Amino acid sequence: MSISLDILRLAQTFAAHAATRQQAISQNIANANTPGYRSRDAVSFSDFLENTNAGRRDAQIRPDARPVTLSPDGNTVSLEHEMMRAVEARQSHDLALGVYSTARDILRAVITRR
Known about the structure:
Mean pLDDT: 90
Strand content: 5-15%
Number of domains: 1
Oligomer: single chain
Number of helices: 3
Low-confidence stretches: none
Number of strands: 2
Largest sheet: 2 strands, antiparallel
Helix content: 55-70%
Order of helices and strands: HEHEH
């Protein structure tokens, strides 16, 4: 019997992407009052997955192409937007852990029945 572990790798990569997004969000919040600071976000999950599968260490965090706000001092961080991003990142991380846990439980069930 052949069992593919691709779902576990995908869940791990999804959790890593969520952690990368959380890192970008925390940097944005820390620099919310820094004049000229440009908000950043992680690359899309598809780009993140492609870079990970290819073994590339391209920049996984990039400046926002279309920031939601621009203050007079040139700062583009919106704390409200960052809080929404933080919720999205947490939900993504929770989803990845749920998939990983379910796949682990299935593997355990298969192994113990042998």
